[in-house]
Amino acid sequence: MGVIRRWCVTSGSWVFYESWVGMYTKNELMFPQYAVAHLSEARGEQWSALVRRVAALPETHEEVLAFMLMMIRLNGCLPCETDSYRAMRGCIMCSLQTLRRFKETDDELLATYQAALADTRAHLAGTRLPAARLAVPLSASLPAHLSDVMG
Questions:
Q1: How far apart are CA 51 and CA 12, in angstroms?
Q2: Model confidence over 21-57: pLDDT tens digits?
Q3: CB-based contact 140:119 (threshold 8 Å)
Q4: Which residue in 43, 95, 99, 145 has the fewest CB atoms around it within 10 Å?
């Protein structure tokens, strides 16, 4: 954010304030890789181990891409608007809130990651995913026995 100087007619002096022009340019369109490491304490030990492993991998690794896809699905990044409260708080805060609100066990959360990993591997292998999977509804990334409950 830059500083803008404006003349205030009422006070007869220059007023300095921060410009909000750059605010939206720092918002991510979808869950970013740099946010992964910030999620390690959000759940239990299994989750923390996954986050630590994924955070240590290069950004283009299939496990990192799968983690990002899972978080995009869980957070609902596709319909997120840059001027929404959620977007203004940032991806890390949104993700932490999403993980706190995820009522299933860490095993179910890891199964969601495994589903995203399978989709990532299929995509990287050149397999076309069904349109329903591309729309990434939450229920599409969940194990079958949870889809009817949460989807």
A1: 55
A2: 444 445 677 889 999 999 999 999 999 999 999 999 9
A3: no
A4: 145
Enter the tokens of residue 60: 């283009």
Q: Judging by DSSP bridges, how do beta strands 3-8 and 13-18 pair with one another?
A: antiparallel
- Each domain of the chain, given as residue ranges in start order, spans 27-150
Tens of pLDDT along 53-97? 999 999 999 999 999 999 999 998 888 887 777 778 888 999 999
Structure tokens at 61: 């690794």
Structure tokens at 141: 């990334």
Instruction: Give the HSE-up count for residue 24: Cα atoms under 13 Å, Cβ half-sphere.
Output: 7
CB-CB neighbours of 122 under 10 Å: 13
